[in-house]
Design goal:
With 462 residues, this protein is an alpha/beta fold. It is built from 20 helices and ten strands.
Length: 462
């Protein structure tokens, strides 16, 4: 490289600096290194730190790069990138600018030894494992698939695994159980569990500290990425963009990805469509709220694990009437124990009923879908056979959508089950109905009043 061409590149960098804010310049242009300029073929070659870096420059700063290259090196100049991808061995990858991008060449550096692999804290909660993940009808399939992945993490059938369900049903427990089993069977695997919120914080911090490439290299080295609460990325465009490229890299290299959310991908409004598409590449597994039998099994396991002494009839009463999440079950047990100690009362059925009914605003009654349909038809003056039928009259469609909305709000049924019970509708129709009512409730006071009237008739608790 001659002093003359080096000075030309310095002028290019000054041009970039003058046309960008300081953070953009420091993050995306300072790491660029000028390699060479061949006047014979009009090729400028620059170093960039990673494949992602190259893709980001091409997508966001292509015009600015070409403007500078054309202005200072000449109109016929072509631009090429050399990308360093840090894996077990450092490599250089020559990526040409379009239209000759198919001429990609890869060459290993001759005298480099493998880079040491950084020790990794998997952030797993080993107390949440398959031994204490109680199986029931509501989680049987996700648990079975999770065990299969844990035993064969290199299989591609269930990649990614996308687990979804309401809060407190055991999604986090399942994710930790999978990761813990993988580490037991394959200790050499780089397994990482984290929340989407923590990922977003790390991403933001890496940009602020100008350490974005280290951030990317770290995540590209993961063998099994387990991310909880993926819905936390909604509205975070930069985080989604970065995760999209990490997802692609891991998936293309056969690494396992496991995600969890409080809703299915189709209901992640505000998430990039290309991410939603990738979430559906593998397997979607729903964990429902536990049924009575599973609730009882979970209570018995917790009582045995904690060494508690709770009579069988009290356990039966709790499992029959507390229809919420696993966390709610645990909270009820803790509350009963606290009241028993404070008031020095024996833990019997009579005491449990008094505590639950009076002190904890306990709701002993579970609403059925039949009650929802009856109440909606009565309030909307619609016949049940019409609601279940195929009529597209506006008042019938509205009543049908209200029934579906109320069913998902006040029962523990899956979308598919709700659809089957309300005229044999499919999953997509159920989701569309819920979204329609949710959107209209924001501004339609008449619909708000109708909904309140139905809920009042059925004695729903707010």
């Amino acid at each position: 490289m001659t002093e003359e061409t080096q000075n030309v590149w310095i002028r290019c960098m000054e041009f970039f600096h003058n046309n960008l804010n300081e953070q953009q310049y420091q993050t995306w242009f300072v790491p660029i290194k000028f390699k060479s300029y061949n006047k014979a073929d009009g090729m400028v070659v620059i170093y960039v730190p990673s494949q992602f870096f190259y893709e980001y420059l091409e997508e966001h700063y292509r015009k600015l790069l070409h403007t500078a290259i054309f202005r200072f090196f000449g109109r016929e100049t072509k631009l090429a990138y050399e990308v360093e991808v840090i894996r077990d061995v450092k490599t250089e990858q020559l990526v040409y600018d379009k239209p000759v991008i198919d001429q990609v060449k890869t060459k290993a550096k001759a005298n480099e030894s493998p880079s040491p692999i950084q020790e990794l804290d998997s952030q797993l909660n080993v107390e949440q494992n398959f031994d204490n993940f109680i199986e029931g009808a509501s989680n049987k399939m996700p648990r079975s698939i999770g065990q299969s992945i844990a035993e064969h993490p290199d299989q591609k059938t269930f990649n990614p695994l996308f687990v979804y369900g309401p809060s407190g049903v055991g999604k986090t427990h399942l994710l930790n159980a999978i990761g813990t089993r993988i580490k037991q069977l394959y200790p050499q695997k780089r397994v990482l569990y984290l929340s989407a919120h923590l990922f977003q914080v790390q991403y933001t911090d890496s940009v602020r500290r100008n350490a974005f490439n280290d951030f990317m290299h770290f995540y590209q080295s993961i063998d099994v990425l387990i991310m909880d609460d993926i819905q936390e990325m909604i509205g975070k465009d930069g985080t989604q963009y970065t995760f999209f490229h990490i997802f692609n890299h891991l998936h293309q290299n056969g690494r396992q990805i496991i995600l969890a959310s409080d809703r299915p991908p189709t209901m992640l409004n505000g998430m990039e469509e290309r991410l939603i598409t990738r979430f559906k590449w593998g397997l979607l597994a729903e964990i429902e709220r536990p049924g009575e039998v599973l609730r009882r099994d979970i209570l018995i396991d917790k009582i045995r694990h904690d060494g508690l002494n709770i009579p069988a009839d009290v356990i039966d009463y709790i499992s029959e009437h507390v229809c919420g999440s696993v966390r709610e079950l645990e909270g009820v047990v803790h509350s009963l124990l606290a009241y028993s100690v404070v008031y020095d009362k024996e833990m019997d059925l009579s005491f449990a009923k008094r505590v639950l009914d009076r002190n904890l605003s306990f709701e002993p009654r579970e609403i059925t879908i039949e009650q929802i349909v009856d109440g909606t038809c009565s309030c909307c003056n619609v016949r049940q056979e019409d609601l279940f039928g195929k009529s597209r009259k506006a008042n019938i469609v509205r009543a049908r959508q209200l029934s579906i909305y109320l069913a998902q709000k006040h029962t523990h049924l899956t979308h598919s089950r709700i659809g089957a019970l309300i005229g044999n509708r499919d999953h997509a129709t159920v989701i569309h109905s819920i979204r329609t009512i949710e959107n209209r409730l924001q501004e339609d006071k008449s619909l708000q009043a109708t909904l309140q009237e139905i809920e009042s008739r059925l004695s729903f608790r707010k």
